[in-house]
Structure prediction request, 281 residues.
Amino acid sequence: MRLRTLLGDHPGTAALKNGSVKSDLVQFDFADYSPTNKGFKPMVREGAFDVSEMAIVTYLMAKSFEKPMVLLPDIVLARFQHGHALYNARAGKLAPRDLNGKRVGIRSFTTTTGAWLRGILANDYGVDLGSIDWVTFEDAHVAEFVDTTKRAGAGKQIIQMLIDGELDAVLGEKSDHADLKPLFADVAAEEKAWFEKNKVVPINHMVVVSQALSDKNPDVVREVHRLLAESAAASSAAPHFDRAEMQRSLELIISYSAQQKLIPRAFSVDELFDDVTRALR
Prediction:
């Protein structure tokens, strides 16, 4: 069976994409999107793929609007988030606790990195997220989500706005510009302390399949999971989570997403899967 597939180039997907991991049951027709997240919108809005990499917050939002897709227990991207926040040091020192009332840019309010960082800021630093003047550059992947943030002007670029002093800080970005510094002054120490507190590695991207594929071809879905797992096992650089680690990470991003009103309620982790994919955990 040939499957329309969106899957980025990650350490854990390399063996699958280069043909080292094979199947007699399925073949993948890989779509070409660069960056891969540009394919999330057509998946959510049009069901463009049978198998798709998916940002976990996009999936949570899609589920809240009953989009016909289901999660697989396969993680392709996970990372600590503290290093993806910047401020312009030319304007003076800025620390996380100083963000109340500031003007903060983010590519889209609904990005997974943004949700993780806002959760960290609110729950670990006491930042009032509602006091921040959020400036965004793209709409949500999920069309039904009502975005109340301010949109940057046409042609504006997020890093340049920070350099020019039009923003006080940005989330979800990195830059080697001399004036731009990490919002979290000692990123490694912050990440270590946060992990010791939460025992969580933040999940960014997992894999989903269409609900139709799971309903009609459960054997195919099980084979897709087997191939993804075998491909991930071939790389020491791939995310490797046991069931408890995945559970904690998913529970926390669900909590953050509900807190930020990206989703109307906190799902249980079990709700993210169907009968076919839940058994694969």
